[in-house]
Design a protein that fits this description.
alpha+beta, 3-stranded antiparallel sheet, 4 helices, 25% strand
Length: 181
Amino acid sequence: MRPRDGEVLHFSEDPTITTFVPHVAATAADPTARVWAVDAERAPSYWFPRQCPRAMAWVTDGTSASDAERILGLGSGRRVHAVEYRWLDRIREVRLFAYRLPADRFEPIGTPEPAAHISRHTVRPLGPPEPVGDLLALHEAAGIQLRVLPHLHDFWAAVITSTLGFSGIRLRNAAPPPRAG
């Protein structure tokens, strides 16, 4: 489930959205009202229930072989998404939908690569929402390793200090780290 040429996607568990109106996200540091969407490269980061915490890492031009082996593992491809066991049933059961939106209404945000695309204007979908389908099968078909962990904290700490590209979404929803001792 990726956008076609001239499109960006918005993923939602709500199949009834007819218009996307700019709003300020509850966790936004910037008070600018926006509509958010993603391109083909970032779409897999949203193949999850909305509130699911996930830590993602991928190989970039600057990734060292040792970091790739240490974080991704041998024979694991170029990208890994990590989630917690407590979210696995929800990942299997969620009904997720993709809205196709006109890319010319959006601008990329983030550097050096765009992390997302934003519009400051109301946007109408190009058609009805499409069911995304089996999220585990999407990961497999895309060659993305899906790693299931008791908690994300140690993995995330290793990823953010590595030479891999990375993104963390909804990490505030992650289980607390285990107590030492």
